[in-house]
Amino acid sequence: MPHSHPHRLPYPVRELTLIKTDNQRVNYWAAPDSDTLAGQYQSAWDIPARDMTELYAIVQKWTDQGISADFYRRVIGDASIATTELIEDYLYRVKLGLKSKYYMNQKTSNGMKAVADLAAVAMPAAKAAVSADTTDSDCEACTL
Fold first, then answer.
1. 19 has which bridge partners?
2. 137: left (phi > 0), else alpha (psi -120 to 50), else beta?
3. pLDDT band at residue 119 under the 50/70/90 scheme
């Protein structure tokens, strides 16, 4: 019997570098070769929902399960998403055969702290996570 796991999709890059925390662990991530290829990356925030829908529809066509289709939208300041736009996007997804939408990620701020600033704040949490007892033998990601 095949393993049951979420399908991995070709997600776009939201930022060239990210620091994610969950109060116990700190994950640092950087787009591959972003130090030299930064100009070649297209931001997820610049990809229209229709384009993402078409990409996901191609993947969905060859996938027997629902996929985790994420979408991205800037909603900064007093910007908003019109109800008609949400309905049109939904109907387009249905028309192209997507079974569901997973997340509607919203960028709500133009400002980003410098990675060095964030690292300085996150570093104590990272040190605590490293020294914490991580004996959860069922946690595959914990052993990577």
1. 28
2. alpha
3. very low
How crowded is residue 74: how many other Cβ atoms within 10 Å of its Cβ? 15
Q: Quote the distance between the C-alpha of residue 80 and its chain's center.
A: 21
Residue 26 in tokens: 């700190």
pLDDT value of position 115: 45
* Single-letter amino acid, residue 126: A
Whether residue 127 contacts residue 26, with contact meaning beta carbons closer than 8 Å, is answered with no
Cα separation, 108 vs 111, whole angstroms: 9
The label of the residue with tokens 């007093």 reads: 78
Amino acid identity for residue 10 in this structure: P
**Phi then psi dihedrals of residue 105, to 5 deg:** -75, 130
pTM of the model: 0.64
Token pair, residue 129, equals 């996570």
- Which residue is associated with the tokens 């998403």? 81
Q: Give the pLDDT confidence score for residue 138 in this predicted structure.
A: 59
51 contact partners, CB below 8 Å, separation of at least 6: none
